Amino acid sequence: MPSTARIVALDVLDVRFPTSEHLDGSDAMNPEPDYSAAYVRLCTDAGDGHEGHALAFTTGRGNDVQANAIAALAPYVVGRTVTDICDDLGGFARTLVHDPQLRWLGPEKGAMHMATGAVVNAAWDLAAKRAGLPVWRFLGEMSPEELVAQVDFRWLSDALTPEEAVDILRRAEPGRRDRIDLLLAGGYPAYTTSPGWLGYTDEKLARLAREAVTDGFSQIKLKVGASVEDDVRRMTAAREAVGAGVRIAVDANQRWDVQQAIDWMRELAPYDPYWIEEPTSPDDILGHATIRRALRPIKVATGEHVANRVVFKQLLQAGAVDIVQIDSTRVGGINENIAILLLAAKFGVPVCPHAGGVGLCEMVQHLAMFDYVAVSGTMHNRVIEYVDHLHEHFIDPVRIRHGRYVAPTLPGLSAQMHPASLEEYAYPTGPVWASRV
Hints:
Elements: E1 7-16, E2 36-44, E3 52-58, H1 63-71, H2 82-86, H3 89-97, H4 110-131, H5 135-140, H6 144-148, H7 162-172, H8 176-186, E4 188-196, H9 202-214, E5 219-223, H10 228-242, E6 247-251, H11 258-268, E7 273-277, H12 285-295, E8 299-302, H13 309-317, E9 323-324, H14 334-347, H15 360-375, E10 384-386, E11 400-401, E12 404-405, H16 419-424, H17 431-434
Parallel strand pairs: 4-5, 4-10, 5-6, 6-7, 7-8, 8-9
Antiparallel strand pairs: 1-2, 2-3, 4-12, 11-12
Helix pairs in contact: 1-4, 3-4, 7-14, 8-15, 9-10, 11-12, 13-14
């Protein structure tokens, strides 16, 4: 590819799926979500056919706001050379994150930060395609020094220095090749939320829970938080369906105040919940710490709505979580997620990524697999969330075999959608929406 090749367009599409019609994705805080993607495409004049694809995930209304935030970054990307971006992805990410005017809209949180993450992830997709590797392996074959160069250590050095990060990565270097081979042969453990949406009947919950166990999953998750009586009944049904040997996690999606979370979970404790996810505000670090102390041995998990690496740092410093849950589209892209994975490794806390949504399973699998290959070096007590819908819209969809993610082998981030899906579900003009709005 000529060194003069440039980014010639940053396209943004508002793509929405009417999942609210069947209550797929329903929970106590999001009772009728329409899973949506503010979808990014980086186009070049390289002539090699490679484009960068990624998305920011939303639940319907506001997807246009997210798409406009992404579009606001086009002047900082279009016209730059492909090599300038792909050969210095850390510098590229910092350029977007630290724009002295756009950062005012966060700083480093909210729609603008998610927009940055979407564009940064699209750049990683492009770089990995040029290298002919899936992103997890593209990352996993970088040197410790190259990986540390991707991280913005501003506001982290009281908890993690660049030197400590290099040491963590060097300790994981032995066995990298063996772990790559193990991933390719056996995949990565998954758990499924598909049985547990709040809008499902008890009968559907129990049937799907039994099917999940038959399919090889050793953990399922239920949404909770609307009614304690309903939650006790649903937990009873789920536990009877799967038996004592299967983990059941529960997820309140931020529904409770601190004491309410403690009281509610004590009602569910007899059914042996493995973790309580998002029991309260994602910003309430001390609240999570209080809940964790009160509910042991039930684990506390959070992260899908944590805005940036600094809040993750404080959750870990405060001993507020047992499980770190990264999300591929919430923070400032792969670079910031590398920082979070390194923080979790420093504090010895397992990472179990949030997925579901649209495209989240496809993208976050790469981060978990990279963590196994090059950061933590283990899958012990680690699982990636899985939800069984909307994968058919992706060119390289996730594959689950015996309750495990099959490692992707196609180059890129697995985020590229079929052109027909982009056209059909475009909002509000696509055929699926034209008859609804």
